[in-house]
Amino acid sequence: MLRVVGEEIDIRSAINRFNSSYHEDFSRVRKISAAYLTALTTQNATALADALRSALMNWGAGARKAPMLHLPSQAAARLCDPNLHAKLVRFDSHQLSGFALSSADKRIFTTEGLYQSAAHFDADLLGVLKMLAEALFVNNTNVTYPMKALLLITGFMPALDSQVRKGL
After folding, report:
1. Backbone dihedral region of 69: left (phi > 0), alpha (psi from -120 to 50 degrees) or beta?
2. DSSP 117
3. What residues have CB less than 8 Å from 158, skipping those under 6 apart?
4. DSSP H or E run through 95
5. Which letter does DSSP use for residue 5 in this model?
6. Contact predicate 92/157, CB 8 Å
7. What percent of the chain has pLDDT over 90?
8. Which of 76, 26, 132 is nearest to 140 (CA)?
9. Hey, which of 18-32, 35-49, 63-77, 104-118 has the most confident mean pLDDT?
10. Distance CA 101, CA 103 (A)
11. For residues 167 and 4, is the Cβ–Cβ distance under 8 A?
12. DSSP of 47-80, one letter per residue?
């Protein structure tokens, strides 16, 4: 179980210590993903696929034991899937304030109608990560890079790679 024991300033400081190129990649992709999330068009999916490829390669994809990326045209075609797009739009709309822990350490959702249960949230999250893995990567076998893609597209969650683990 992950429990946040630091203060907000500790988390902010750990994020700010990341290499500035990570922040630049994140900002660049988020600007492009905003258009994609607003309107599912081939042009928006193509721009997003190109931006994701560049950022994910900067973040280690295709190197060492990391997964290889599909060609941008292949990724763009997959990003045009209305089901994937709808799931990404949903994750983009999440606010951190909509999630909490009960006094019994049970996950709860404070936003009305967000999810029926933690199990429904888990299924949705795992489903979108699987879809991103298939859309963007060749023979991906772990969750780190799909988490990075979800972070870049929606800003939803941290990608638990070695830098994030070190910061935590």
Report:
1. beta
2. S
3. 147, 151, 164
4. none
5. -
6. no
7. 51
8. 132
9. 35-49
10. 7
11. no
12. HHHHHHHHHHHHTTTTSTTSPEEPPHHHHHHHHT
CA nearest neighbour of 40 among 129, 162, 153: 153
Which tokens is 78 given?
A: 């997959």
Could you give the 3-state DSSP secondary structure of residue 41?
A: coil
Question: For residue 82, what are the contacts with CB-CB under 8 A and spacing of at least 6?
Answer: 40
For the beta carbon of residue 47, count every other beta carbon within 10 angstroms: 20
For residue 160, the SS3 value is: coil
- Amino acid residing at 51: A
Helices (H), the chain: 8-16, 20-38, 42-58, 72-79, 82-93, 118-136, 144-154, 162-167
Each residue of 104-130: pLDDT tens digit? 777 777 666 677 777 888 899 999 999
Residue type, 41: T
pTM equals 0.84
Q: Are 129 and 143 in contact (CB under 8 A)?
A: yes
Per-residue pLDDT, averaged over 63-85, amounts to 95
